[in-house]
Amino acid sequence: MRALLVDRSTPTGLRLGEVPDPEPASHQALIRVTATSLNHGEVRFSLQEAPDGAVLGWDAAGVVVRAAADGSGPAAGTSVVTLGIDGAWAELRAVDTAWIGTVPPGTDPGVVSTVPVAGASALRALHRTGPVLGRRILVTGATGGTGRYAVRLARLGGAHVVASTGDPEKHGDSLRANGAHEVVAGPLEVKEPVHGVVDMVGGRQLVDAYGMLAQGGTLVAVGHSAHQGESFPFGALFGDNGRHDRSIVAFALPACTGLAPDLTWLAHRVAAGELDPQISWRSSWDGAADAIDALLQRRLHGKAVLDIA
User: Any idea where the Enoyl reductase (ER) domain is (predicted)?
Assistant: First the structure.
């Protein structure tokens, strides 16, 4: 099969080449990949750390060509969306059935390929904040792929959504159209305490966002785009004056159970038009190097999708 391979002898660090077809384990299905979406973490870290010849990629949509031997998961011919720690940048992928969601027939695979990391991370983060109906939820880094999913899902869940972005003037209209009630330039501009935070930035913004939590509130650290550590000033973690029982949590998506139903639910919402991943780059996988550069340079606000020829 053809695949995008790590190759440090090339200027881009990638090349299209041939590799053996994957051999699925008994609990895995073999998927013919038709589209993959890129994530900042995989192109920033995985691509730098992987050995030559590796096939990377977390998100992929496609069709089951061979069902799992143990009888789990969808049947051959089913349209699916898949999550994995690698293998998405190839024509064929072996995937654990616990990480496969089913997709309504006829759904654009490029659009649904945005679901696994961005959509599922946003959904799980909102679950971790607790009930959102009638509550105030702050999303930092709201113009990124996961941030946009978080804004829309929080709005669908009945929250009052505050979206934080570095350029409210440029992105305010699109964030409000996506479901934000308020758009701010940073957590310190939030006018009232919030009950939950989905933080995509880390660093100083995480510290500031934590300071906006109401009693019993939870901040979920999902992304770390600032590439900075967090230093809390003395007193920031006191529990007096309405600051009782606030918490900071983090999670790793691959460690979560029950992801197949999440992926299916999200894919159906995307297919129905209730969720818009707001794709800002789409090309064939021949354009992978340009898409990766745009991601690394922070020129994209939304998701980047590659169609697998």
Answer: 9-306
Quick check: 20 and 35 in contact, CB under 8 A? no
For the CA atoms of 262, 266, 271, 272, the dihedral, rounded to the nearest 10 degrees, stands at: 110
Find out whether 184 and 162 touch, Cβ atoms under 8 Å: yes
The residue count for the chain: 309
Maximum distance among all alpha carbons in the chain?
62
54-64 pLDDT tens trace: 999 999 999 99
Query: Which residues are CB-neighbours of 149 under 8 A, at least 6 positions away?
Result: 118, 119, 121, 122, 123, 275, 277
What tens digit of pLDDT does each residue of 94-121 get?
999 999 999 999 999 999 999 999 999 9
The rounded distance, in Å, linking the Cα atoms of 17 and 3 is 6
Distance CA 102, CA 138 (A): 30
Tokens representing 70? 């143990």
- As beta bridge partners, residue 196 has 137, 218
How far separated are the first and last CA of the chain, in Å rounded? 11
> Which residue in 44, 37, 49 sits closest to 8, CA to CA?
49
pTM equals 0.94
